[in-house]
Specification:
- This protein is of the alpha/beta class.
- The strands form two sheets. An eight-stranded mixed β-sheet has the order 3-2-1-4-5-6-10-8, with helices on both faces. A two-stranded parallel sheet has the order 7-9.
- Helix 2 crosses helix 8 and helix 5 runs parallel beside helix 7.
- The longest helix has 28 residues.
Length: about 260
């Protein structure tokens, strides 16, 4: 036979108030944590990778500002709820105007192919990355995540011959960001694809040793970039990423911690 103890009404009410107060306090703490997340500027936000970075930031509760050259394209690709400011990485003044209130940057901009006169690798992958870093330092931005590419240290990389020395200029962009004095994370993905992601283990390496089959989805690349904003162990580090068969990680704290710093 079960024995039930009936609490006095006053005690029961007191307990209920205590539980309710704890729930409310936890809710306020969660809200405060969300409010503390920095405003993130995403360069290249309308590109294939950049738009996924924006979506990943939104899913994690970050306030986002898209830095774009075409406002109409931004509204179409990112939606009306994403703040978009127009500018150009080749124009430092437009960058400075976009950085008000920003405390973190993810630069997913790239010259791509085919290159056109105002979108060459030297202008975007090097000068644009450098301009963004220099203006970010002047504005007091706390963290700069740069999307680069595996293979940038190979002067004879075949993509240099095909696309106006794109890998050379990406490496110079990395060097400019690191030399600017800003806290940085430089992510070098393997070959990019449009797979859904979150289905394989993401491998973190250093030494820039590209090889056949070292590929990663843009979705997983975006996950790593956003995770780097939240992890002190990702700061001032340069690394390569690709996927292999295995269990997908739920976070990358161990991987970031295992990396050597620059």
């Amino acid at each position: 036979m079960r024995t039930f103890i009936s609490l006095p009404a006053a005690v029961a009410a007191s307990l209920l108030m205590a539980v309710s107060g704890q729930v409310a306090a936890e809710a306020e703490e969660a809200t405060a944590e969300e409010d503390m997340k920095p405003l993130v500027l995403v360069a290249g936000a309308t590109g294939k990778t950049g738009s996924l970075v924006v979506a990943q930031l939104q899913s994690k509760g970050y306030p986002v500002r898209a830095f774009v050259r075409d406002a109409a394209k931004a509204a179409e690709r990112l939606g009306a709820d994403v703040e978009a400011v127009t500018g150009d990485l080749k124009n430092p003044a437009s960058i400075a105007a976009a950085l008000d209130g920003v405390n973190a940057i993810i630069n997913a901009a790239g010259s791509g192919a085919p290159a056109v006169a105002d979108n060459l690798p030297e202008m975007v992958d090097f000068q644009g990355a450098r301009n963004l870093a220099e203006e970010a330092v002047a504005a007091g931005v706390g963290h700069y995540v740069l999307v680069s590419s595996m293979g940038v240290t190979d002067d004879d990389h075949y993509l240099n011959q095909m696309f106006n020395n794109i890998m050379l200029w990406k490496r110079r962009g990395e060097e400019a960001v690191a030399a600017s004095g800003i806290t940085y994370t430089i992510v070098r993905p393997g070959g990019l694809n449009d797979e859904p992601g979150s289905a394989q283990t993401i491998v973190f390496e250093q030494g820039d040793n590209p090889g056949r089959g070292k590929v990663i989805s843009r979705t997983d690349l975006a996950r790593v970039c956003v995770a780097a904003l939240q992890d002190e162990e990702a700061r001032n580090k340069v690394f390569e990423i690709y996927v292999r068969e295995g269990e997908p990680q739920t976070d990358f704290s161990g991987e970031f911690a295992a990396l050597g710093g620059s």
